[in-house]
From TrEMBL:
Transmembrane segments: 24-44
Highest classification ranks of the organism: Eukaryota, Metazoa, Chordata, Craniata, Vertebrata
Organism, scientific name: Salmo trutta (Brown trout)
Family that this chain belongs to: Belongs to the glycosyl hydrolase 47 family.
Any Pfam family: Glyco_hydro_47
Ranges for region Disordered: 124-159
Catalytic activity: N(4)-(alpha-D-Man-(1->2)-alpha-D-Man-(1->2)-alpha-D-Man-(1->3)-[alpha-D-Man-(1->3)-[alpha-D-Man-(1->2)-alpha-D-Man-(1->6)]-alpha-D-Man-(1->6)]-beta-D-Man-(1->4)-beta-D-GlcNAc-(1->4)-beta-D-GlcNAc)-L-asparaginyl-[protein] (N-glucan mannose isomer 8A1,2,3B1,3) + 3 H2O = N(4)-(alpha-D-Man-(1->3)-[alpha-D-Man-(1->3)-[alpha-D-Man-(1->6)]-alpha-D-Man-(1->6)]-beta-D-Man-(1->4)-beta-D-GlcNAc-(1->4)-beta-D-GlcNAc)-L-asparaginyl-[protein] (N-glucan mannose isomer 5A1,2) + 3 beta-D-mannose; N(4)-(alpha-D-Man-(1->2)-alpha-D-Man-(1->2)-alpha-D-Man-(1->3)-[alpha-D-Man-(1->2)-alpha-D-Man-(1->3)-[alpha-D-Man-(1->2)-alpha-D-Man-(1->6)]-alpha-D-Man-(1->6)]-beta-D-Man-(1->4)-beta-D-GlcNAc-(1->4)-beta-D-GlcNAc)-L-asparaginyl-[protein] (N-glucan mannose isomer 9A1,2,3B1,2,3) + 4 H2O = N(4)-(alpha-D-Man-(1->3)-[alpha-D-Man-(1->3)-[alpha-D-Man-(1->6)]-alpha-D-Man-(1->6)]-beta-D-Man-(1->4)-beta-D-GlcNAc-(1->4)-beta-D-GlcNAc)-L-asparaginyl-[protein] (N-glucan mannose isomer 5A1,2) + 4 beta-D-mannose
Keywords carried by this UniProt record: Calcium, Disulfide bond, Glycoprotein, Glycosidase, Golgi apparatus, Hydrolase, Membrane, Metal-binding, Signal-anchor, Transmembrane, Transmembrane helix
Enzyme nomenclature, EC number: 3.2.1.-
A molecular-function term among this protein's GO annotations: mannosyl-oligosaccharide 1,2-alpha-mannosidase activity
Stated name of the protein: alpha-1,2-Mannosidase
PANTHER family: MANNOSYL-OLIGOSACCHARIDE 1,2-ALPHA-MANNOSIDASE IA (PTHR11742:SF31), MANNOSYL-OLIGOSACCHARIDE ALPHA-1,2-MANNOSIDASE-RELATED (PTHR11742)
GO cellular component annotations of the record: endoplasmic reticulum; extracellular exosome; Golgi membrane
């Protein structure tokens, strides 16, 4: 023994009389006792009631049940009989359903499964108004006239069949040599995936969906749909072209949804649209040309006039993004593209023309280069189609288009010495008397918009459209095959 003084008092301490082995045995006994107690509480019958009574002060009804009175016993017996009757009924119902299922054909079983999925989907929507992806309920209505019609004119029918034959040849070749790749290289007969799409695959599949449907190639359409559902993935750590991904993937998915009503296309389009939204995180809201889909970091093409965004790229998002807002219920998509209009409206436009380069940081034009062909083309097309898509209610889009067309006619449209109408390019006030191949779309665009022009200009614009189309035709006809 030893003693210790605390505050002048002495305390005697004695070493323990238990040996180490005895301590170990006592510890084991104590552990076994604790385990037994907890096992009794959690695993013995009615232990949950015991827990609720001990720890949570069960109600009077539960307390009376524990006492086991005669009336309570009768209730318990009656309840047990009801439970057993329900089990027997459910068992018999299951046997009948199993017998019916065994007698059904495989296609009927498949249809039943789909019907059950649709039922669950509708129930989920009716409860919350949205599905698991928080998408609004859309009552799908198939556009009339997309399929199911044959032309009465024999020549038209023959041309139609020839076009379908060409499509089938191209599609079958893609399936055989490049399935899943972004494109088929026809000479080497190998698949290729351009870095414009990062590591996203299947551009040709998504691109072809609407054509397959309209041409009533339904077996191929279903094959392509299955690929999209199982393999189209946007969760990639890769940099993509916002413009190319929008017109090829978002546009392809949206058109496939509107033609077929398949939800997979709507969901995929919205998923991709959400991935593209960080491209708009610039001081002006003018989007970057390139975006890493994982990090959300964007940049512009190094060659584009001091880090500028390109008119044909940021101006060719409007149609798809307006539809993304409609189908997702998320106004952000529409707000982003409408902001582009606001920025353009605030800027002074040389001679009413839109230069191809705009700095997304300063909000000022870059190099004063104007072209209705490459770098500018589809901006004008989308202004017109935005007005048409709105059932001609988008007056701002209409005004922007016709004002731009007037500036193009005044400053860029010229006639060659040989009588061919062309649309020149403009660089800092000087005309370059050339028209690139991409400008040839303007013939169709001007013809499409002639119907909405003032009455005194409708015929004039149709003539312009025809003349530009003739110029493009002559550019091919007058080119030697050896060239």
């Amino acid at each position: 023994p030893f003693k210790k003084s605390i505050g002048g008092l002495f305390f005697h301490y004695y070493p323990t009389s238990f040996r180490l082995t005895e301590k170990f045995i006592l510890l084991l006994v104590f552990s076994a006792f604790i385990t037994l107690c907890f096992g009794a509480i959690f695993f013995l019958p009615d232990s949950s009631k015991l827990l609720s009574g001990v720890f949570f002060h069960s109600s009077a009804v539960e307390t009376n049940t524990r006492k086991g009175t005669d009336s309570d016993s009768n209730i318990a017996v009656g309840t047990d009989e009801k439970i057993l009757a329900k089990i027997r009924k459910d068992h018999e119902k299951a046997l009948v359903e199993a017998k019916d299922t065994l007698q059904k054909r495989p296609d009927e079983i498949k249809q039943d499964i789909q019907n059950e999925k649709d039922k669950v989907f509708k129930e989920d929507l009716s409860k919350g108004g949205k599905d698991d992806d928080n998408l609004p309920v859309i009552e799908y209505v198939q556009p009339p006239g997309a399929t199911g019609h044959e032309p009465s004119d024999p020549e038209t029918k023959e041309r139609r069949e020839k076009i379908k034959e060409m499509m089938k040849f191209a599609w079958d070749s893609y399936k055989r040599y490049a399935w899943g790749s972004n494109e088929l290289r026809p000479v080497s007969m190998q698949g290729h995936s351009s870095n414009l799409f990062g590591s996203i695959k299947g551009a040709t599949i998504v691109d072809a969906l609407d054509t397959l449907y309209v041409m009533e190639m339904y077996e191929d359409f279903e094959m392509a749909t299955e690929w999209v559902e199982k393999n189209l993935d946007f969760n990639v750590n890769a940099e993509v072209s916002v413009f190319e991904v929008n017109i090829r993937f978002v546009g392809g998915l949206l058109s496939a949804y509107y033609l077929s009503g398949k939800e997979v296309f709507r969901k995929k389009a919205i998923q991709l649209g959400e991935k593209l939204l960080p491209a708009f995180k610039t001081p002006t809201g003018i989007p970057w040309a390139l975006l890493n889909l994982k990090s959300g970091i964007g940049r512009n093409w190094p060659w584009a006039s001091g880090g500028s965004s390109i008119l044909a790229e940021y101006g060719t998002l409007h149609l798809e993004f307006m539809h993304l807002s409609k189908l997702s219920g998320n106004p952000a998509f529409a707000e982003k593209v409408m902001n582009i209009r606001k920025v353009l409206n605030r800027l002074d436009k040389p001679q009413g023309l839109y230069p191809n380069y705009l700095n997304p940081n300063s909000g000022q034009w870059g190099q004063h280069h104007v072209s209705v062909g490459g770098l500018g083309d589809s901006f004008y097309e989308y202004l017109l189609k935005a007005w048409l898509m709105s059932d001609k209610t988008d007056e701002e889009g209409k005004k922007l288009y016709y004002d731009a067309l007037q500036a193009i006619e005044t400053s860029l449209m010229r006639k060659s010495s040989g009588g061919l109408t062309y649309i020149a390019e403009w660089k800092g006030g000087l005309l370059e008397h050339k028209m690139g191949h991409l400008t040839c779309f303007a013939g169709g665009m001007i013809a499409l918009g002639a119907d909405g022009a003032p009455e005194d200009k409708t015929g004039h614009q149709m003539e312009q459209a025809a003349e530009i189309a003739r110029t493009c035709h002559e550019s091919y006809a007058r080119t030697s095959e050896s060239d």
